[in-house]
Design goal:
The chain is an alpha/beta fold and about 160 residues long. About 30% of the residues lie in helices and about 20% in strands. The longest helix is centred in the last third of the chain and has 15 residues, at about 115-125.
């Protein structure tokens, strides 16, 4: 059983919540979201918001807050082999009311199909809010090039 090692990023002005499934090995080592150098999350988000790609954890946190983005994951703890979403078992989900009670979240987005299915199975019944599924920014989602990802992710800015 691995416990999620990264605190959520949000403040009272956060308008959108983006949820992944669970941090990859590289993200757990980096101690921050989307820490794998080939994950395209930071590239996609920075293009969508017309900014430079943030490099450090501090820059990434400031980027999120400045753009009204709350960032966390669906899963609090689970059994997982490496970084493989398909291996996830024994899921315990995060309590999203921590963010939802303190921020003005208008829309909830999930990064990839695994996060979406887990959200719908465990969280949606508790909070009665739909999430919008976006294509995964993971390098494992090779069918989506950067250009297609950016186009699909434009919705988060609206």
């Amino acid at each position: 059983m691995i416990i999620h090692p990264i605190a959520p990023v949000y403040n009272a002005d956060s308008k959108i919540l983006i949820l992944g499934s669970f941090p990859s090995v590289k993200s757990r080592e980096a101690k921050f979201f989307y820490g794998h150098p080939r994950n395209r999350f930071w590239k996609v988000a920075s293009v969508v918001f017309g900014e430079n790609v943030p490099e450090t954890i501090e820059e990434k946190k400031k980027f999120l807050i400045r753009n009204g983005i709350a960032l966390w994951d669906v899963i609090y703890s689970c059994d997982i082999v490496g970084s493989s979403d398909s291996s996830i078992k024994n899921v315990v989900v995060n309590d999203l009311t921590i963010i939802l009670s303190q921020a003005q979240i208008k829309n909830i987005f999930v990064n990839g199909k695994k996060a979406y299915s887990l959200y719908n199975k465990y969280i949606r019944p508790r909070i009665a809010r739909d999430a919008i599924c976006l294509p995964s920014t993971s390098p494992a989602n090779a069918g989506w090039n950067l250009e297609k990802l950016i186009e699909a992710w434009e919705i988060i800015r609206k």
